[in-house]
Predict the structure.
Amino acid sequence: MKKLEYIWLDGYKPEPNLRSKVKVTDSSPPDWSFDGSSTQQAEGGSSDCILRPVNEYTGPRNSDKLVMCEVLSPDKNPHPSNTRNACVDLVTDDWWFGFEQEFFFINPEDGTILGWEDGTPRPQGEYYCSVGSRNVRAREVSEAHMDACLEAGIQITGTNAEVALGQWEYCVLGKGIKAADDLWVSRYLLHLICEEYGVSVNLHPKPQKGDWNGSGMHANFSNSEMRDSGTEDLMKAMCDKLGEVHEEGISNYGSDNDMRLTGAHETQDINTFSYGVSDRGASIRIPIYTVENNWHGYLEDRRPASNADPYKIISHIVGTLTK
Ligand code: MG
């Protein structure tokens, strides 16, 4: 018999939570059901929603597999909370995404950011990519998470301590819809591993007001045209196209993002759209790698917040650029 850990997104707004339950079976993952009235996905009178497996990963600890699922209504149509369904119709594996997930480690009891127990720490400056107990918290959790992702088959491409004390980042690279599935499963693993260490995760884009960095989820993207035959004109035309629907983009890039996109802390103001080479104060950065590689490469949309739904990010970017 195998232990299959089914994972899905609930119906909470503005951002869904991750849910899971374990099925013990000797067959390959079948459709399964759950009580949607307990996840804001159904009324109590007709509460069954359906879990449809869409991707499988090697499981951590004692489970054999993690099974990422889409939620269907009882009539087998995509549930209104199912943002993956629209995404999967748009994106092909020709599109590659690198998500830079930033977050804070917090105390699960009172929500205090790790390192902030005795009040406000020394100002930002020495924490980014630092080493030493005065500057870093919970490195062992970040490392355990990285290992769990790699074991699961998720292509983590790096991690680093971030600009604020208690803040970390990891990067995930993926192709097509799997990029977004992987990001959700990587978040699931992060929450799970934090349970073991007695810490928790805060994905809010600005957990600490003031002169402290917020958390984003920069979305690097490319398709084969950009990678193999990109030009300055192509890259700039893509930026312009995304700029034309800037407000729509922001509406898909996570809640409370106005608290983070202020024009300070390596962000552009939420009401302004701009792009530029190597410009970390722009909405979209054209990486120097792309320019020096004869404009063959990728772009970095710096607007998405740390709490954004990657299905919505991909739908917006690919939907806009393939129109
Ligand atoms: Mg970062």
User: Anything to note?
Assistant: Residues 73 and 80 are 8 Å apart (CA to CA).
